[in-house]
């Protein structure tokens, strides 16, 4: 087990170094950093002096090692657009993105898995057909269109929920949360459901397909022949054997929720890292773009490591093979 974790951690380090190389390359090949930092009245001597102060005349490898060392310490440089430390900007935006992603992931899991089990066990029921129709809508319609339709219905026509923003937040140290206010929860409902809909329908269809396959296996037939209760067969034996592929897809989708919350945050003007990234693209703010790329890669690496460890808890065959 420890050897497996060490091997995965070593792979994660190489992945982060590769992503760091891509992020660092943006500084050299996407515009001139000096031109983005100074004004038009800056003289050539001042530009040369600033380039020397920033170490831009050093060899590529030296600059890359310095960039990785600073990034490992949480130092991503200064934003070209706002003239603020990038780490400070990300720290102020991260709570909004993580809370939105957490609620969306919980909605996708706690709604998608029961719906998938129900549609597998009651394939011809009216409610099952309704769930399948909802899944087609969730997979077919793009996220931004779902968000706009929800804003039109619940924000403009019915006026039940706010159309944009995060609502009132409470500051707990450096963390700002909307979980402790009514307006915070009201502002969270529409973007969280919009972000969770695609993931929820994907998980539901995956669980349904895996359940239908497992229910046809010989050990399920043997369990029924032994006279075991149907509830025990469905939830203790069948559902447990569907969890390995479900954990794989769910882990990847949780990372995708964080990475691709950009569209949802833009539609609802949610003040998170995704909206910050979109604004940075428009201003060619390379430090913010590279920092966002590194943060998303780190989230994916951590989530994949957790998924690999969950395999050992769910599938005993892996523990036997490793032993």
Number of beta strands: 2
Q: Architecture of the largest domain, CATH level 2?
A: Orthogonal Bundle
CATH superfamily of the largest domain: MetI-like
Residue share in helix: over 70%
What's the overall geometry?
A: globular
Question: What separation lies between the terminal Cα atoms?
Answer: 9 Å
Oligomer: single chain
The largest sheet is:
2 strands, antiparallel
H/E element sequence: HHHHHHHEEHHHHHHHH
Count every helix, treating DSSP H or I runs of 4 or more residues as helices: 15
Average pLDDT score = 82
- How many domains? The number is 2
- What are the segments in which pLDDT stays under 50 over at least 5 consecutive residues? none
Would you give an account of this structure?
It is a single chain. The protein is built from 15 helices and two strands. Helix 14 packs across helix 15. With 323 residues, it is mostly helical. The protein has helices at 2-29, 33-37, 44-53, 60-72, 86-121, 126-140, 143-157, 182-214, 218-225, 230-241, 243-259, 261-267, 273-283, 286-314, 316-322, and strands at residues 170-172, 175-177. The chain has a two-stranded antiparallel sheet with strand order 1-2. It folds into two domains: 2-72, no CATH class; 92-283, MetI-like fold.
């Amino acid at each position: 087990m420890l050897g497996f974790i060490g091997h995965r951690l070593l792979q994660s380090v190489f992945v982060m170094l590769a992503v760091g190389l891509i992020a660092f390359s943006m500084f050299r090949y996407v515009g001139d950093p000096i031109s983005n930092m100074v004004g038009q009245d800056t003289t050539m001597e001042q530009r040369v002096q600033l380039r020397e102060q920033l170490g831009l005349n050093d060899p590529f490898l030296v600059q890359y090692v310095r960039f990785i060392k600073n990034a490992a310490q949480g130092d991503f440089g200064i934003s070209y657009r706002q003239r603020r430390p990038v780490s400070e900007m990300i720290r102020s935006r991260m709570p909004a993105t993580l809370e939105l992603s957490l609620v969306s992931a919980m909605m996708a899991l706690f709604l998608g898995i029961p719906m998938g089990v129900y549609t597998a066990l009651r394939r011809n029921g009216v409610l099952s057909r309704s769930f399948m129709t909802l899944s087609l809508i969730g997979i077919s319609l793009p996220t931004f269109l779902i968000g706009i339709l929800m804003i039109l219905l619940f924000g403009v026509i019915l006026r039940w929920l706010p159309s944009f923003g995060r609502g009132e937040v409470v500051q707990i140290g450096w963390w700002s949360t909307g979980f402790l206010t009514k307006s915070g929860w009201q502002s969270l409902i529409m973007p969280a459901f919009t972000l969770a809909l695609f993931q929820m329908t994907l998980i539901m269809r995956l669980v349904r397909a895996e359940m239908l396959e497992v229910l046809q296996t010989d050990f399920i037939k043997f369990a029924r022949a032994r006279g075991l209760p149907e509830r025990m067969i469905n939830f203790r034996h069948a559902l447990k054997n569907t969890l390995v592929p479900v954990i794989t897809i769910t882990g990847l989708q949780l990372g995708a929720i964080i990475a691709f919350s950009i569209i949802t945050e833009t539609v609802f003007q949610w003040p998170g890292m995704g909206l910050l990234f979109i604004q940075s693209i428009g201003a060619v703010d390379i430090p913010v773009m590279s920092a966002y790329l590194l943060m998303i890669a780190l989230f994916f690496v951590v989530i994949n490591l957790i998924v690999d460890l969950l395999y050992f808890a769910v599938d005993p065959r892996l523990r036997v093979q490793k032993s």
